[in-house]
Amino acid sequence: MDSGTGRVVVVGTDGSARGDAALRWAVEVGAHAGDTVRAILVRPRDTLLPGTSFAIQPHGRAPEADYHLDEHVAGLARTSKAKVETRTVHGDPATELVTASADADVLVLGAHRGGALADLVLGSVGRECVRFSRCPVVVITPEAAHRFAPA
Prior knowledge:
alpha/beta, globular, 5-stranded parallel beta sheet, 5 strands, single chain
């Protein structure tokens, strides 16, 4: 856990509408003054597994090459009373987010709407995080994020 007195809210984000909804919920609803929001962008490794190609995205949406996490988060979290940190890591998103959950009080994710076939073939980062996270997990859609937005 964080050595401070506040909570640590880890949020997985990738610049998508769903990642933005998770980040907005984390900074506007999930975190308060004294808390730390840790926004994590997971980039896929550059190496390929044998027999695979970049045409198959086993980890879901890959962030654009010119996407800058610090600038994006600063724009979305400018009114937050919580301390906001950013981290970019390389690897499998589910593995990296579950690892980050070990030092968190809550893990916030955007919901994936890839359909049953996409979940069956590609797997689901959210499903793996819910199964293996070491803290409570909040999975939020863009629609739901607006329902909880402060007035």
